[in-house]
Amino acid sequence: MYAGFGISIICVLVHLDYVFLSEQGKSYDEYSLFRITPKNQSHLDYLSNLSKTTSGEYDFWLLTTSVNHPADVMIAPPVKQGLIRYLNTVKMPFSVLIDNIGEKIKEDKLSSVETPPALEFFAAYQDIEDVSDLIN
Ligand SMILES: *[C@@H]1O[C@H](CO)[C@@H](O)[C@H](O)[C@H]1NC(C)=O
Ligand SMILES: *[C@@H]1O[C@H](CO)[C@@H](O)[C@H](O)[C@H]1NC(C)=O
């Protein structure tokens, strides 16, 4: 339980870092981060299927393997409305953690002082160390 939670945090940190580092190559404008909670086996099967698609439209930052445990998924703009419709149809609860990841990255850049990439990377590494300390 504890370890699983810690690993989730690390996954999110690593993913955020990945998003920041690859920002120059790709725009995340209008990409959203959804937290989706499966309430029964068919919900879980659906999420499991989504996580295996390789089109790049669904990027799982946090996987779920059991009912009532949420998944965090980055959704590409073209599939967002369809996914929301589907989730409402099958009554799978979700919340929007980040509405526009592209904007969020820009805000974070503006609010932070110019930091060389190497230092940012080191800071991220330190966070992970801290998390490891907490769970060990
Ligand atoms: C998941 O994928 C399998 C194989 O493609 C398919 O048979 C099944 O209906 C899908 N399940 C859901 C819930 O979409
Ligand atoms: C899961 O919940 C949805 C919405 O309540 C329902 O339509 C569906 O039949 C349920 N599936 C299972 C396997 O219980």
Automatic annotation (TrEMBL):
Residues spanning the signal sequence: 1-16
Task: Kindly indicate whether the keyword Disulfide bond belongs to this entry.
Answer: yes
Sorted keywords for this record are: Carboxypeptidase, Disulfide bond, Hydrolase, Metal-binding, Metalloprotease, Protease, Signal, Zinc
Q: Which residues form the Carboxypeptidase activation peptide domain?
A: 34-107
Q: Which domain of life is it from?
A: Eukaryota
Report the coiled-coil segments: none
Q: What Gene Ontology terms for biological process does this UniProt record contain? A: proteolysis
**Which is one Pfam family of this protein?**
Propep_M14
What does this protein need as cofactor?
Answer: Zn(2+)
Instruction: State the InterPro entries in the record.
Output: M14A-like_propep, M14A_act_pep
A molecular function annotated in GO for this UniProt entry is: metal ion binding
Record-stated family: Belongs to the peptidase M14 family.
Q: What is this protein called?
A: Zinc carboxypeptidase A 1
Source species: Oedothorax gibbosus
